[in-house]
User: Fold Transposase from Gordonia lacunae.
Amino acid sequence: MRQIQHPMSRAIYEFDEDFNVLVTTKDGKTGTFDPEGRYLHGEVKSVDPEMARWVGLGPREPVPITQNRRFMGAAKLLEKMQADRLAEEARSNRLAEGGKL
Assistant:
C-alpha cells in the first residue's frame, strides 16, 4: 500500500482499497479524498492536493524535454549546438595537423 508522511503537517497520506487517499492527522482525525485532492468524507476537510496526487496517482513517467511545451524548440537548438561543436572539433583537428582553415 502506498503511503507517505507529509513533511510539514506530519499527516499520513495512504492509498486505500477504494482507490482514494486516506489522510490521518497527528491527532488521529481522518478524511478521505479522491486522487486529485477533492474532499469525499471524514473529519479532515483540507488536504495538500500535490501529496494526494502523488499517493493517489503515483509518480509519473518522465517525458523527453522536447515534448514539454516550454521546450518545443529545444530539439532544433540541441542539433545546432551539436553541429557547431562538431565543426569546431574538425577545425581544431585540422589546425593541430598543420593544415589550413
